[in-house]
Amino acid sequence: MSDAILVLEDGRTFAGRAYGATGRTVGEIVFNTGMTGYQETLTDPSYHRQIVVMTAPHIGNTGVNDEDPESSRIWVAGYVVRDPARRSSSWRARRSLDEDLVAQGVVGISDVDTRALTRHLRERGVMRAGIFSGDAIVRPEGERRPVDELVDEVLAAPQMAGADLAGEVSVDESYVVQALDADGAPLDAPYARVAAVDLGIKSMTPQRLAERGVEVHVLPATSSIEDVLAVQPDGVFFSNGPGDPSAARHEIDVLRGVLDRRIPFFGICYGNQLFGRALGFGTYKLRYGHRGVNQPVVDRTTGKVEITAHNHGFAVDAPLDGETAAPFDGGRYGRVRVSHIDLNDDVVEGLEALDLPAFSVQYHPEAAAGPHDAAYLFDRFLDLMTTHRDGSGSAADAATTGKGAA
Ligand SMILES: NC(=O)CC[C@H](N)C(=O)O
């Protein structure tokens, strides 16, 4: 294995070895604390344009299988690990992680002091970085390129703040995920039909709805409100996705069209941020974000604490206590409350409309990878759709009655 170097925009460098494809890559460097789930992380479209550092020291131990990917390709812009597995071992493994990274042209670096790197990012905040190896670190004459030159390349990369990226990862054509019965066979008469706007959707999300007997129509990010209505949905879902929610204008207009029609709405992660913005709240960039599978979140409706999967660098800026009039358009969407909070740092992790059938969470109930504590939220969405069909129901009702509160 040849030498590689990781260069941060503040000039700090980490020497290592080339891992995966050799060459050059730039992006925003972020760390993920999950001890498991590297396949789900690599294939999560929300990581588009981000270089991911794994804090778990051994990566690749179980190789790569065909069941765990969350999309059809690896999306991370680069991959930083401490100690890659020399050999993978799992009955499900089809190939090694290294082979997959090479095949998909993902530039990585190993043998990095990932603890020192993570501490640096926690203190200074996430920033742009580059991984350079092979021809990207030597001049044609054979001499090493100076670090200053590499830092300049990193500084030329776009910032994550202000980036509108959902269109780069969404589908071009809509598709349908069939509703399933309890045995996993197709259900002839689905309990509900959902229009799911793909802003970078993870495949497990429509799956979780389908498992509950919901037929899911996955739509491109560019869909108009007419496209959404054409599905005749019982509910609308906005997915996770990459980029800065303050840059998403079109999607927020569509979402307001959904709220104006009182169609039940559920959003996850980017979908939560867009819901927050549609209601008139701001969003802001966290210093280093939440990425991993062990974040404690309290559901304020039930008082229960759940251990949850996260991948977000932005958050909604809404008042933590009490009910608030949603600021947009002089309170057009009525009252809202923060329904979930991260117990590590009090970041808003969920929003609930009190006068509309709409709610969202900042974290990942689809649990891929991650604990399944938050699966009840899909039941809550189904409850909201079924109660609202009878002409009543707000998100708060669905949270305190029926299956959702069980
Ligand atoms: N997983 C997501 O949906 C991420 C949302 C947004 N891109 C963020 O970083 O906060």
From TrEMBL:
**Enzyme class per UniProt:** ligase
Bilayer-spanning residue ranges: none
Keyword Repressor attached:
no
The segment annotated CPSase runs over 1-191
Q: Which domain of life is it from?
A: Bacteria
Which positions in this protein are listed as binding L-glutamine?
Answer: 46, 241, 243, 273, 311, 313-314
- Tell me the active site: 269, 364, 366
Q: Which GO terms describe its molecular function?
A: carbamoyl-phosphate synthase (glutamine-hydrolyzing) activity
Determine if Chloroplast is one of this entry's keywords. Answer: no
What the entry lists under Pfam families is as follows:
CPSase_sm_chain, GATase
- What keywords are annotated for this sequence in UniProt? Amino-acid biosynthesis, Arginine biosynthesis, ATP-binding, Glutamine amidotransferase, Ligase, Nucleotide-binding, Pyrimidine biosynthesis
Which pathway is recorded for this entry? Pyrimidine metabolism; UMP biosynthesis via de novo pathway; (S)-dihydroorotate from bicarbonate: step 1/3; Amino-acid biosynthesis; L-arginine biosynthesis; carbamoyl phosphate from bicarbonate: step 1/1
Record-annotated Carbamoyl-phosphate synthase small subunit N-terminal domain positions: 2-132
- Recorded catalytic activity of this chain's protein: hydrogencarbonate + L-glutamine + 2 ATP + H2O = carbamoyl phosphate + L-glutamate + 2 ADP + phosphate + 2 H(+); L-glutamine + H2O = L-glutamate + NH4(+)
Question: Under which EC number(s) is this enzyme classified?
Answer: 6.3.5.5
Q: How does it assemble?
A: Composed of two chains; the small (or glutamine) chain promotes the hydrolysis of glutamine to ammonia, which is used by the large (or ammonia) chain to synthesize carbamoyl phosphate. Tetramer of heterodimers (alpha,beta)4.
Q: Which family is annotated? A: Belongs to the CarA family.
Role summary: Small subunit of the glutamine-dependent carbamoyl phosphate synthetase (CPSase). CPSase catalyzes the formation of carbamoyl phosphate from the ammonia moiety of glutamine, carbonate, and phosphate donated by ATP, constituting the first step of 2 biosynthetic pathways, one leading to arginine and/or urea and the other to pyrimidine nucleotides. The small subunit (glutamine amidotransferase) binds and cleaves glutamine to supply the large subunit with the substrate ammonia.
Protein name (database record):
Carbamoyl phosphate synthase small chain
